[in-house]
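Q: Predict the bound structure with NAP.
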Amino acid sequence: MTAQVIDGAAIAARLRERLADDIRAFTEASGAAPGLATVLVGEDPASQVYVASKRKQAAAVGIVDHHVHLDGGASAAEIAETIERLAGDPAVSGILLQLPLPEGLDAAPLIDLIPAAKDVDGLTTLSAGLLARGKPGLRPCTPSGVIELLDAAGVEISGARAVVVGRSELVGAPLAQLLTQRDATVTVAHSRTRDLAAVTRAADILVAAAGRPGLITAEHVQPGAAVIDVGIHRTPDGLRGDVDYDGVAEVAGWITPVPGGVGPMTIAMLLRNTLLAARMQRGEAI
Ligand code: NAP
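A: Predicted complex:
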């Protein structure tokens, strides 16, 4: 194996320690701790686990919990009412609507009810516009986590050729923008890309966010490249990513494992966004 393993769990733990200090200082200076409202609709088991983990980690760094659980039969109007109430509550710094919503509910208009200053998932149309324009705002958590991992590992982003496999609103598209803003030369690949391996082999930084287990193999990777695996797949053998880890680790310069790579960073970025949101609401620049 040649690749250096980027330990996302350890990097996220260090980040949470620093955040806990920053949140303590913020709370002392402002007289109120940042507050996070997680809104869960229904009983989806995976969503329940994710929300529980977010709330636990938030509490551990000093963020006040404003969780709301609506039953699976809640109407769009009831969810909208909840978001609007939280939007007007000064104790709530950030609002997160856990996805997916139960079938039959359209998430996009509900997400857009979250004010940009409280949009800790960075998923509203307004937040996406701020990112596209390079203006200050809250950025989506998983793409921000990828940038943090590259920085923590000492991978040079400026001037690098980066290939992002995937163009979703949640991961691929915002990540391509963040990398461009850090002066990488970015190519976005997707399901219609011809000869994916030829495209990805040009990458100094290769991010796999396609949601296809084992899609990226050694033949997709330039020797010495940094390979970041965003994919998460539950298999009988445990969690797997979009990258064929064992094969790629023989070629890459850096690699993130699944689990223990990008995953832990996503929640750490949510916590950071909650502090940034609290600062914005006090009129501080972020
Ligand atoms: P998504 O909305 O399904 O988007 C997948 C993207 O990959 C699409 O743009 C699609 O292209 C592209 N794609 C699909 N098959 C491809 C192929 N064979 N070759 C090249 N591109 C291909 O998924 P997502 O929400 O972005 O999530 C992607 C993965 O990341 C999933 O495994 C998800 O579970 C994981 N994830 C992890 C975290 C974390 O915290 N680690 C957070 C979010 C998501 P088209 O646009 O052409 O359809």
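A: The domain at 140-260 is CATH 3.40.50.720 (Rossmann fold).
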